[in-house]
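Tokenised fold entry reproduced for absentees:

. . .
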Amino acid sequence: MSPALTDRDPVTELTARERARALLDKGTFRELIDPFEQLASPHLLAQGITPQSDDGVVVARGTLDGERAVVLAVDGDFQGGGIGEVSGAKIAGALELALRDAGSGRPVRPVLLLETGGIRLQEANLGLLAIAEIHAAIAALRRHVPVVGVITGMIGAYGGMGIAAGLCSDLVMTAAGRLALNGPEVIENEAGVAELDSRDRGMIWAYSGGSQRTAVGLADVLVPDDTTAVRDAVRAVFARGPRPDAECRSARVEEFTRRLAGADPALALDPQWLRAAWGTADGRGEKQHDTEEQQA
């Protein structure tokens, strides 16, 4: 039985640091390169932007079900979770160390808590380089252990970090989470309000929200906005073990090419049409929990 709405501990109300702590086994949270290290971006102050002493990324070590784990939590409250040189290096470096340990027979369970608009425009080229390193590390690491992405809200995951989410072997979302390459405002600015009204919140969630992304197989597990439910979903992935790399989304090129070939670019893609046409006949979206709306 799923918890009643009033009994929940909403994960969306937690800070990035609190989310990382809540995911790990109790008492095992240990932060690496914490704010006291003062490893802030060297590029923001010159542009009139106050930097943050952890550059918006929390790197936490601990255990998950007694096994070594690393949680990388992006702080959506700082620069919209934008990834720059320092924050990107923290994520990429942690994943590369996890890859080194996996190669030496000491696997670490990696989890990415994603609340990010993608590359930080003030550090565009440096952010691009960092995100490329993140992508490469995820693709290499998932051959050894599951790489779990979690998108809960309220920012979502966009741009290069939306691609990073797609590279994860498993993706957990809440109904409030969003996943897309371009954000609504970007689409409206480039193609006009006739293409997408960024103020139409219902439409935005209908095409990019967690319920839709799970229904069409672009995410794997839909959970309620509850800390325990998110943690249980992540634990279940690691209990299952790594997927064959051929089953990961980025390796299923022919399948997604067929999907796109079946869509008429002259017509607006209706979310319900996408559910009917793309669905989850491929077996992804294996475990869906009731959403808040269904339980209400």
Notes: Residues 5-295 form a domain with the 2-enoyl-CoA Hydratase; Chain A, domain 1 fold (CATH 3.90.226.10). The chain has a mean pLDDT of 91.
